[in-house]
Amino acid sequence: MGKKILINFIKEHKVSYTIGVTFMLLTSYIQTLFPKVLGDTIDILKVNNFSNKDVYINIAYIMLIALGTFVTTYAWRNLVIGNARNMECHLREKLFEHFEKLSPEFYNRRKTGDLIAYAINDISAVRMTFGPATAMSINGIVICLISIYSMARAINWKVTLLALLPIPIIVLIMTKIGGIVRKRFKKVQENFASISDRVQENINGIRVIKAYVQEDKEVEKFEVLNEKMSESNLDMIRVSSYVSPLIEICFTISFVLNLIIGGNMVLEGSISLGSFVAFNGYLTMIMSPIISIGRIITIFQRGMASLNRLNEIFDTEIDIKEIEDCVRSSIDGDVEIKDLSFNYPGAEEAVLKDINISIPKGHTLGIVGKTGSGKSTLVNLLLRMYNVPRGKIYFDGVDINDYELKSLRDSFGFVPQDNFLFKASVSDNIKFFKQIYEDEEVIDATKNSCIFDSVMSLNDDFNTVLGERGVNISGGQKQRISISRALIKNPDILILDDSLSAVDTITETKILENLRRLRGNKTSIIIAHRMSAVMEADEIIVLDEGRIVERGTHSELLEKEGIYYDIYKSQFHEEDNEFGNEAS
Ligand SMILES: Nc1ncnc2c1ncn2[C@@H]1O[C@H](COP(=O)(O)OP(=O)(O)OP(=O)(O)O)[C@@H](O)[C@H]1O
């Protein structure tokens, strides 16, 4: 898939690539004219009473060569290297698009740092391969071919081949070293991913780390990773450092051979001094691309390793798929769950068992139960965060799998348990960057979720920029801003997953009153640990180990004197005690 994206990109840009490569070939050709003109000039100057005109003509040639090299290099660099930058941008965009489509399950399995490394390092390594390394290869091959041919013409094939004798040895060394570099580079990338993962985790969890005084321990752990990273880099450098000196030695041998044989030929008069100078000019010219072979091979090896890593991600199937003729309309509000059982991918035990629920449009369902009983899993399935078997969940009589994902999820206003705020203004966090809402609507949403006064007391009220993950406001304020984000949508189905847990009981009562007023004819699902949040619901289900063990209205459940009754009693007993203590 990653390779396919690249091939398609190259096909789409074939015109600019063709023009770019043509200019590149032209540059290489023009560059190889220089040693010949220089040799000719020396032969002219060597003669007594040389013609000034001939020298001026050759100087003009040299100037033209410089100008030609400048113009053609400028053109190909803009086209080929420019295309490589565009390719990088295109690849990153595709990767991000792919990331957005992958299910939460994928992110449960992967390390964040790893994914960041894909988006930064690997894509950059691919760009280097298809930009500078490809350009250097083409340029090098052309220069080498023309130079070798010109060397043979300047002296002869025998001396040329003798001078080039060390080159196959150089290529062999390069290929061997390249293989080792690739393996060691993979290790570097893996270590980089671990480092970026740790940094990310530490930044996100800095409060917990500080609260548990774990800073020194974390620094120690980081040092171990950093050492490993440095070690793997040094391992790579240890091998790649051989490259330049080995090549230098090989070329020195070439020059010595050439000096002995070519110098003697000049002395014997079988070749002119100009031809000897031109020959050496070509040999020097070959040196640069041959020296670059090491770098080029390393870039190619890295690029291929990165492309393989990217391919692995691009080939990760988007496991939540839409059918072809999917329903593109939004949900009206009827929810029907039939005999639903669910296992997390790869898990043996079901976390939901034989769930049957019917929520007519406009009703409110309350869900309570011990932690880990499956409440969040149930609402996540309603949003199809995981695949749901056919015939288990229906909205307005239509199977969940028949809905277009966008229409399905757009019908919900979801406040997840681990609500998330962006590093953006309060207003943008509520609108979710959609400029379709009026300021009045933002204000109403905050009033209904009882956060308006708190927002107005912020430095820049609705324009106050929240810290990453909303750190400059309290947990309860964060929850209420997240509720505002759901309410402004006026969704067909509202889901609050334990979203009132950090709100005091008086504010909770106000928010619930507002919800009842606003959502008279709309469906709502409220998950809560505090019974006060679900007491008014049309139906309450009690989950225990993935099963519905009790259901009914608040008063029906109290009459049953089961789990619900026990939790209710314990909570209200606590509150009575609290009030009692306060009064005393
Ligand atoms: N991504 C996951 N992969 C595998 N198992 C999971 C995953 N998410 C949750 N579980 C497991 O599924 C069970 C139900 O979890 P869930 O989050 O639905 O419970 P919950 O009732 O919402 O709990 P809480 O009240 O603490 O939020 C738990 O045993 C949990 O360990």
Summarize the structure in words:
The protein is an alpha/beta fold and 584 residues long. Among the domains are: 2-314, ABC transporter transmembrane region fold; 549-584. The protein is 65% helix and 9% strand. It contains 21 helices and ten strands. The protein has helices at 2-12, 14-31, 33-46, 52-101, 104-109, 112-154, 157-163, 166-204, 206-211, 215-240, 243-268, 273-314, 375-382, 405-410, 426-431, 439-448, 452-456, 475-487, 505-518, 554-560, 563-583; strands at 335-342, 352-359, 364-369, 393-395, 398-399, 412-415, 493-497, 523-527, 539-544, 547-552. Strands 6-7-8-3-9-10 form a six-stranded mixed sheet, with helices on both faces. A four-stranded antiparallel sheet has the order 2-1-4-5, covered by helices on one side. Helix 2 runs antiparallel to helix 4. It is elongated and about 120 Å long. The two termini are 71 Å apart. The chain binds adenosine-5'-triphosphate.
Give the key terms.
single chain, 584 residues, alpha/beta, ABC transporter transmembrane region fold, six-stranded mixed beta sheet, four-stranded antiparallel beta sheet, 65% helix, elongated, disordered C terminus, binds adenosine-5'-triphosphate
